Amino acid sequence: MQYSVFTDAxxxxxxxxxxGEQAVELLAPRGGHGAAQLLxxxxxxxxxxxxxxxxxxxxxxxxxxxxxGVNENTSATLMTTTDYESCRDFVTRRAPFQxxxxxxxxxxxxxxxxxxxxxxxEAAAQTAPxxxxxxxxxxxxxxVPVRCRVSGAEVPAPGKGAVGVLNFFDxxxxxxxxxVEKGSEAYWALFRQYVRAELDMRCTHILLPPGEAxxxxxxxxxxxxxxxxxxxxxxxxxDAPWLCGGHIAHWHDWDDGEYYPNWDQKTGVTTPExxxxxxxxxxxxxxxxxxxxxxGRMAQALADExxxxxxxxxxxxxxxxxxxxxxxxxxxxxxxTNLGGGIxxxxxxxxxxxxxxxxxxxxxxxxxxxxFYTCAFxxxxxxxxxMDLPLTASRAVMWMGALYRLSGFLHWGFNxxxxxxxxxxxxxxxxxxxxxxxxxxxxxxxxxxxWRSMRFEAQRSGVEEWELLARALRAAPEETEALIRExxxxxxxxxxxxxxxxxxxxxxxxxxxxxAV
Length: 517
Known about the structure:
six-stranded parallel beta sheet, 30 strands, 28% strand
């Protein structure tokens, strides 16, 4: 039987050659994890399992990696392309191809032939620092030696550190992909699994669905917050640090100066009727928040991506929110710098931040909270989580958050399973085009809940490292900033090699260990 070990910072493919590495060597901070991938050519009936030698060690998670089809390449300009020559300088392979992205929890024998595995050592905060040794038993005769050094450096729990994370959630697609009725007990049991996955990915905010408008004889009479209430209760039970109210308005066109309520696309929010509708919404929502004791852990999203054409209208909408939801911070992805007083957590897109960096830095210098986000646009080599970009892009993007001294990250696509076959067509359809592979989802619909992905794991690792970098920047700012620049220096300039990133991670942990002496 042949097997070999690979890092968790590079992609594996079904046709990858063996690396020649025969042992797993990991480094994990307390409160974080260390992981590796394995490529194995297995006999029939193999059921891998892990055992520590001597005293019990940290929790070990085992997964089978499943291939996912990338049907088109990321375009150099927008969305996707079938012109490989236009993107070959920054993508990993020519589409269509398959890549190991989905992680199925390993719970039984594997079929004969090639298999890819993912092993993760989860070092809880209370884990004693030291070196732990064990074996991944592939067969009765074949075992992979595993050694993990748990560092005294510690990653704080989500919500207790310097970094906030929000991934949008699609409540309709949860029902569609799992074949359950929205709002049923089976639906909420699955939702709980998704919340746990978001928290495991170090999300600090759980996006709740907005209230649903109720009409009687064509007249708006109120809002039904049944779904939002139950979703918030489950997220609170799972100890989510923050809940976030869902979006309630949007513009018709990107250069439109008005916003319109989700439930009434003809009435602008700045009209007298629009104000009365918003008043009704916020009053009812405030009662739900108070009834459930969510004060102090509730944020509110109003309208995604305000532009320079409608930023003043957004501030009017924000004023309504502040009147009826005092003390609730407003958070949104933004495409303008002119929202002062109307937003509490600014979330510009990565290229928007760099384009207007001086203006955003001036806001940040005066105490404004600044996150960033990524999405399908812009495409090209810019850091994103597209499955045909190097896996380092999904991880190093968090190092950019540390480099720019930002305090959070947002992405829209946690589980937006658009299309009929995400297993073979990772580029989901959107408005007559295709989204870059994986942009719409970072988990897959397993039979009993979400299956994470390698991009999920890359984001989780990146946020852990961002927390460590934030601490190291306080302890040794010049040395740490120089270390970050070994990995990345802008959202378009980053290493494509997992080894470079992991070497920098090891140096980062040494900086923190030395600072603690």
